[in-house]
Amino acid sequence: IGLFENANPELHGGRDVSAKNILDSAELKLQDSSGFDVEIKTELYATIASLWAFLGDFDRARRVTQKRLESLAAIGPTSLKVSALFDLAEIAVQRESATDLASVLNELSNLKNKVPFSLAQSADHLWYGGWHDLNSGDFDSAVEKFSSATRLARELDDKDRILRSIYGKLMASMSRGNRGEAIDSYQEGKSLLALLKLTREDRLRRELEMVSALYHLGEYTYGWPIISALFVESKEIHGNFNPSQQSLYFLWGLWAVRMGRAEEVLDWLAARSRQVNSSIYETDFDAKMRYGLLEVEALIETGDSAAVRPRLSEWLAAKDRVSNKTQLLLSVLSLEARLAAEEIEDFEKELAGPVWSEMKGVGLRSDWVGYKNWYEGVRLFINGEISESIEQFRSARVGFSKELGSSHPRTLMASFNEALGEIIEETSSEQTQKKLDALKSIVDELAVRLPPESRVISKARSILDFVVDERNRLVLKGEFYRRKKMVLH
Predict the structure, then answer these.
(1) Got the DSSP string for 283-312?
(2) Which of 78, 291, 292, 299 is the most buried (most CB within 10 A)?
(3) Which helix (DSSP H) or strand (DSSP E) does residue 17 occupy?
(4) Backbone angles phi, psi at 407, to 5 degrees
(5) For residue 390, with 0-12 CB atoms within 10 Å meaning exposed, 13-18 middle and 19 or more buried, which class applies?
(6) 172-214, pLDDT tens digit by residue?
(7) Buried b (16+ CB within 10 A) or exposed e, 401-413
(8) Which parts of 98-199 fold into alpha helices (H)?
């Protein structure tokens, strides 16, 4: 009651008090209060934390949940503590903190022997364990835990829990290279969605979550008809260029570029710029830049270097206004544009810049470190330092495999360049033939995930055809212009 009274604008010089102000006040009052018993106090902490999570501030949600646990410390192991720990596990997942989640899972495992878990909690315990294993690279264990979580969720007939367990299994299956199992999981999840009583809008959102996993795992060819259908359905439900559908628009655009449909993306972006009021994005410059970078990526794919340069310069000039992650993405496109235009000196300057030399940001994903190794490998290969480039491509492959899975096109491309370097350096004809066969297998696997006419597949086949001839392999060691053209990027 006191909190609502304090929200009275007359007490604050006529100013409105935000929800965040009220939550901060509530936390302080609760912390200083001795008038509540433990159960009420922890319930109020839970409410405050859930509201912070709803507002997207998971750091504050974590802090308040920790206070909730501290208030329970005096009464020992109880179901209240179990519930608080499960809430903390969910916050760790939202914050993408594998370290926090490992700590919570350890506490839950210790408590399980003292406080019986409900069937739903047992399913959640397995799911959180699967998520941790997936992000730690233990894909076999992740598949096992997600499968067990699915079985328990089926016993509960809890379709939401079944769906998220299937989604986890999909991610883990693809990450360990079991494409068939992953696609089976996708189909299982899609069939389950059809049984749920959902609005058309909610089903679209759920299907987008499922298909985004296929994109993350590099299943571009398989998933393209699915994302295309969702794109059309979104227009039927929400109309064109609805701000609430930005995630779908970005995903469709990136997917289309990988499928060799960059011209369609450029046409869509041009139509959007004519119809959408740009002021919508003035408060979210990251989103505005993402549309700009999507255009740059599409232009790079079309080979229109003249159009790329001014667009790229515009966004590079504004890079200090965006997050570290967006700066890295911007730099990746800049490096790709330099390579496409064969501006090798500018490429090396960009790679030596602070974005890559300092690798800003704590806890960067393995694939960002992989990109750094990847482009260092390209630089070394072009400069004729083949042995050194092999080591960089190998490190990139390991990083991509950990984050994206062993069969992701990015991992396969790193494997291709690594194998190409080994073929050029190899002196034994018998070993060379084995490695040529391996190179052909990599190209065949890439062709499952990318369309045959795509730029990457065309270039990979061209390189393969070239290095089959021993004389050409010798040429690659010495001729700069050939090395620029032969490395896959």
Answers:
(1) T-HHHHHHHHHHHHHHHHHHT-HHHHHHHH
(2) 299
(3) none
(4) -105, 10
(5) buried
(6) 888 777 888 888 999 999 899 888 888 888 889 889 988 988 8
(7) bbbbbbbbbbbbb
(8) 98-112, 119-136, 139-156, 159-175, 179-195
Tell me the C-alpha distance between 416 and 411, whole Å.
Answer: 9
> What's the per-residue H, E or C state across 214-265?
HHHCCCHHHHHHHHHHHHHHHHHHHCCCCHHHHHHHHHHHHHHHHCCCHHHH
Coil, strand or helix at 342: coil
Contact (CB, 8 A) for 272 and 308: no
484 vs 282: CA distance, rounded Å: 40
The helix/strand/coil state of 186 is helix
- Calculate the alpha carbon distances from 262 to 301, 339, 386 in Å: 6, 18, 33
The CA distance from 49 to 352, in Å, is 43
Q: Which two tokens stand for residue 7?
A: 């929200």
CA distance 222 to 481: 36
Burial (Cβ within 10 Å: 0-12, 13-18, ≥19) of residue 264: middle
Instruction: Report the run of H or E that residue 304 belongs to, with start and end.
Output: none
Q: In the chain, how many H helices and how many E strands?
A: 26, 0
Tokens of 111: 């408590």
Identify the residue whose tokens are 């609430």. 244
Alpha carbons 197 and 392: distance in angstroms, whole number? 50
pLDDT, tens digit (0-9, with 9 covering 90-100), for 124-182: 999 999 999 998 889 899 999 999 999 999 999 998 899 999 989 988 888 777 888 88
- Rounded Cα distance, 62 and 131, in Å: 18
Kind and range of the H or E element at 335? helix 324-340
pTM of the model as a whole: 0.77
Question: What single letter denotes the amino acid at residue 181?
Answer: E
134-142: long-range contacts, CB 8 A cutoff, minimum separation 24 = 134/168, 134/171, 134/172, 134/175, 135/96, 135/98, 136/98, 137/402, 139/172, 139/173, 139/175, 139/176, 140/176, 142/168, 142/171, 142/172, 142/175
